[in-house]
Amino acid sequence: xxxxxxxxxGAGYIGSHACVSLISAGFTVVVLDNLCNASAEAxxxxxxxxxxxxxxxRGDVRDAAxxxxxxAEHAIDAVMHFAGLKAVGESVEKPLEYYDNNVNGTLVLLxxxxxxxxxxxxxxxxATVYGDPASVPIREDFPTSATNPYGRSKLMVxxxxxxxxxxxxxxxxxxxxxxxxxxxxxxxxIGEDPQGWPNNLMPFVAQVAVGxxxxxxxxxxxxxxxxxxxxxxxxxxxxxxxGHVAALRFILEQPGLLTVNLGTGKGASVLDMVRAFxxxxxxxxxxxxxxxxxxxxxxxxxxxxxxxxxxxWQATRSLEEMCADTWRWQEANPQGYNS
Length: 339
Ligand code: NAD
Ligand code: WQD
Known about the structure:
Elements lengths: L3 E5 L4 H12 L3 E6 L6 H11 L5 E3 L5 H10 L4 E4 L6 H6 L1 H22 L3 E7 L22 H19 L4 E7 L1 E3 L18 H9 L6 E4 L11 E2 L1 E3 H17 L2 E7 L5 E2 H12 L5 E4 L8 E2 L4 H7 L7 H14 L7
Parallel strand pairs: 1-2, 1-4, 2-3, 4-5, 5-6, 6-11, 7-10, 8-13, 9-14
Antiparallel strand pairs: 9-12
Helix pairs in contact: 1-2, 1-8, 3-5, 5-6, 7-9, 7-11, 9-11
UDP-4-deoxy-4-formamido-beta-L-arabinopyranose binds next to α7 and β8.
């Protein structure tokens, strides 16, 4: 019998792609999502791509009764916990919402897992836990810090999971630190569908290319980087999804605490991304260099060696594929799932 994975936030951007990878690796998937930043259509399309049924429980990870009912109905072997809020700027305006969703949500989930005797969890952490790193590439043993409530919520959950591991060494816990996920499933049927003004670079560039926005504002042209614009480690969301499957296989075999970077180990600047997207889409991306965005760092990329050594996983998809797959999704779904 295949193992069954509860995917919280499985209707969202990364969670929906993880569902596709999990199903193609032979796992059974159940999604829990309150749809606060997602559409049920994403889960329907995961079913279409994978040819499997994916039950969608519309509920909140902070709702203990909902979790108890879910664990009673489905024999869950492990949880992938994507559910949470992720907009850095919004977290500064609404810190309590971020701590409630991200920190309290994880506490309620862990307690429900314990009641249901489910003891394997993979948590969506972020490269944001490295704050402004002293050097690149970033290794997992670099110091952690937070510069905003979103980042602090991720760090708090990491620490809670560390304490939980110390108290319950029989549990299997994965803390996966994502760098910058971009791209979409190659079918163009699922992808990133930000509500309102996109905070992140790639969805903004895609919306400029498709004509939803006039031009890109490049936040800062005077960083100490080769072309003066910020450098990040963009990772294809399907590579990231496959990294989750590799991490799940690892924690299914081995109890304890796993903390790994999921990145490519390569940096690309904002202008590298603009040019790559222009090539992939055949469209011009007008841009203007403006002031730096508060809180941004100059450069950030992963040392991905630990994931390769422990999980046997590495990112394989190129910047060109990230852009081509984003464009396929954006062109076919100019208004996202509401198209
Ligand atoms: P997303 O917003 O697309 O997905 C999150 C999903 O969780 C959404 O479907 C939303 O409806 C759901 N959700 C939110 N709060 C919930 C709650 N209380 N109960 C149930 N469902 C809830 O975001 P994403 O980009 O797919 O990110 C997934 C996870 O990965 C998040 O935890 C995020 O912090 C983390 N992460 C994202 C990035 C990134 O750049 N996208 C980078 C590092 C880490
Ligand atoms: C990338 C680069 C911007 C938008 C954020 C979170 C981080 C993680 C990933 C969740 C930077 C520049 C952007 C724009 C621009 N999320 N940019 N114009 O800031 O690396 O990371 O998302 O955990 O926590 O902070 O990603 O996509 O916002 O920016 O010039 O309109 O693009 O300055 O150099 P970032 P991003």
